[in-house]
Fold this protein.
Amino acid sequence: MDIKNLLKQESTRRQALITGYVVPEAFRCVQCGICSFYCPINIDVRRHAWLGEPVKDSHCLTCGECVTRCPRGVLRFERTNLFEPEK
Amino acid sequence: MRRYIIVGTGAAGISAAEAIRCHDPQGNILLISEEKDGYYSRPGLAYYLTGEITERQLYPFSERDFRRLNANRKHVRAVRIHTQAHQLVLGDGELLSYDRLLIATGAMAAPVKTPGAQLAGVAKLDNLEDARCILKQAHKGHSAVVVGGGITALEIVEGLAEHGVKVHYFLRGDRYWGNVLDEVESHIVEHRLIEEGVQIHYQTELVEILGKRGRVAGVRTKDGRQVKCDLVAIAIGVLARKELAEASGLQTERGILVDEFLQTSDPDVFAAGDVAQVFDPASGKALLDSLWGPAREQGSAAGCTMAGLQTPYYKRTPFNVTRLARLTTTIIGSIGGGRDDDVLGIVRGDSEAWRQIPDAIAAQSDFDVNHLRVLVGEHTLVGAILMGDQTLSLPLQHLITDRVDITPIHERLLQPKAPVADLIADFWTEWRGQHAA
């Protein structure tokens, strides 16, 4: 991977970290618990998936561990628009 | 105060309890489960077997969640329902009165009649206790024979292989899961299993399990071969656990027959989940599903109706995301046909609706290690299977479930060597852009 791509990838990752939160697609979830198991700060992501609620826990690092680990593609990042300039 | 009894504490039973509590804060809810482990994630057993999660992680509900639900629990077998008297007979002889009762007893592994099936070391993967039992016997350097098809057989194969067990996988025919996957897809899965060190025995039928001092020592095949092994695991499909309904005189076929309100032939007894055979308006048939999503939706609809809020359940396009030989795979809509000699009827993570022959033409493409097959109907996509890269999983789920008109790309999709994935991705981006506005 060249340096340009590496920087682009890192920039995209950082952007996701500050502007997104984790959103579940409840219908895909089978409550296996891998997401909660791998959350570094023990947020019960599985419970959010059961309820179909975004992970708006203020402690969430948006590290993406749950999104990556979920074997069924239940979780994704969604933009919050929190840091976007007001129109 | 209304009395509710829910027999079975899987996804359907728990969803029903939540729905009842939502609409009837005062009602008395009793959850009855024969299995002492109560409510846990049955699909999660696959990840427990491979060691990706611990046993503790399989339980989605904490004691606090149950307290919040304000439901009582009892571990006992339900034997019979006296529908006229509105009473449930328990295995210990106790009689419980109810106003509304839900049967959500799920499905169980089809019994094995092979000689030697009673030997120690013969396993199935029906529940958590079975998974514990398999793990206890999964020692590095041992060998196992796995027989059967569908998702469960692969869960066992991969779980054992992960623990260093030499796995012999017996297939009666020429390929894996022949009534859902096409030849290319079957071979992708088989190739990956072989890479993991699994030895696949095609056209091989188990006729006898051989024992030594009461334990499995090997197996004998129909063509006279003997394979030494320490463990035999069998996953030849599941059967609806409908004994309670049958003993109570309710109407049953392959499962318990229910109408769109999940009501059985008795108006105060409902059924939901793997045990319910639900009328499907799309095919005009009453079909079985063994899927978490529909079980949850059925439980929820039944719970609402039981609490007095009449809520119909309409069968959605069946959908599952699973892992086949470590390859994430999405299966949506009607994609199958044909037959599979390795299973009887339905398997876990399966829907009978997948095998309804669609009036459609297949378009497919392969990219890197990924594979996509879509079934193209007259104006819509009617089914899809996506292996590997899951970027299109969610778009395909929406396009198929919502029956989106794909006329603009219909012709191009069916051209030889069409870039199917790109066509669908571009169409989805445009369609979503128009419909988000």
Chain B has a mean pLDDT of 91. Chain B has three domains: 3-108+239-306, 122-235, 319-436.
